[in-house]
Amino acid sequence: MVRHSSRIELSQSALKTNFGFIRKKIGPEPVISSVVKANAFGHGIYPFVPMAEDCGIHHFAVASSYEAYEVLEARTNPESRVMIMGILYESDLAWVVEHEVEFFVYDFRRLEQARSAAEKAGKKAVIHLEVETGGNRTGLSEKELMSALRFLKKHEDTIQFEGFCTHFAGIESLANQFRVQRQLTRFNELYNKVKKFGYLPKLRHTACSAAALAFPETVFDMVRVGTAQFGLWPSPDIYNMHLMEAGKSKDSPLKRILTWKTDIMHIKDIKKDEFVGYGTSFQAPRDMRIAVIPIGYSNGYPRTLSNRGEVIIRGKKAPVVGLINMNVFMVDVSHLPDVELDDDVILIGRNGRHSISIRSFSEFTNAINNELVSRLPYAIPRKRVR
Ligand SMILES: *Cc1c(COP(=O)(O)O)cnc(C)c1O
User: Fold this and answer.
1) Do 238 and 264 belong to one domain?
2) What is the CA(138)–ligand 1 centre distance, in A?
3) Which residue is closest in CA terms to ligand 1's atom 1?
4) Is the pLDDT of residue 347 over 70?
5) CA 139 to CA 297: how far, in whole Å?
6) Domain limits at 343?
7) Shortest CA distance to 361 belongs to which of 370, 323, 226, 282?
8) 140-175 tens-digit pLDDT
9) pTM value > 0.90
10) In degrees rounded to 5, what are phi and psi of residue 351?
11) Together in a domain, 26 and 104
């Protein structure tokens, strides 16, 4: 088999720890919907879905019908459910109903389309009404909600009213609290209208990772958890809130599940005053030994880490020297006289005392954690490890 220039490992034990921590925060009752949009935030939907299933997860959420298709391909338990929160083309509705995929409804016209698809398939369409609470992304207005309820009550035989939900506009940041608390109040008002109407959904849900970890009043029958399951804190604010509650135990209860590794492709000795790589951004201050790494910005390694990033080789950090190119970059290994071709190079991960976090990338790149991981190329092979 020909090899790709890097590989990703996903830790099953870290994942188990993360779901354990999330479960402790939300209590035993709520369903955890594992959000696996964007190729499971770049971790790889195919290895990740069975790993989550092995942790007892049987509900998944995605952003498109294509991703729903991938979850159905990846799942090992035929009982595992999948829910589309984002784009669903009308032409995909027949497939979605046929495969019992759940979906958000944020447009009243979708209900008639769903009813018609369900009638043709001879199966119920399973829907979640998403309501507008102030995020101003997708969601039904109050007027549309009331029309939707009347429609649903009339068509109970073809449409199953599974969920009632909204999404917060930035609950991970304390600066947005005035806004998201208004959203929660609005959501509760709208839910009371549904109650008065007398036709209740099975699941009420609003919480993403940050909400589930830090705001218990947002946790109802289900939580939709993306970021936290991968062992990433949604924001420094949420991490601080955890620390204040938990006291000063230094160890994060969330464990990064992803390790990204590559190899050394070439080693060379250079003389003081030589330049390294393209341009003149790095000039050797002394005689040096340089290792060439077969990864560049096309592989998802940010170009902004030029002259700033670090990798781990033989348990020691080695700094990036020069620019990150499309497919290679160079690191200084002058302090590692024993380096050899094919030595493992850790781009993200831990070896002994040293660790390179995804957040450390963000400090230089302005990219948030999720942006960085979700862009890791689809082609990189991913595998489960213990
Ligand atoms: C992405 C997303 C989530 C998960 O958000 P995290 O903060 O990563 O947990 C939940 N709900 C909706 C509607 C989303 O789009």
Assistant:
1) no
2) 13
3) 226
4) yes
5) 37
6) 258-356
7) 370
8) 999 999 999 999 999 999 999 999 999 999 999 999
9) yes
10) -145, 110
11) yes
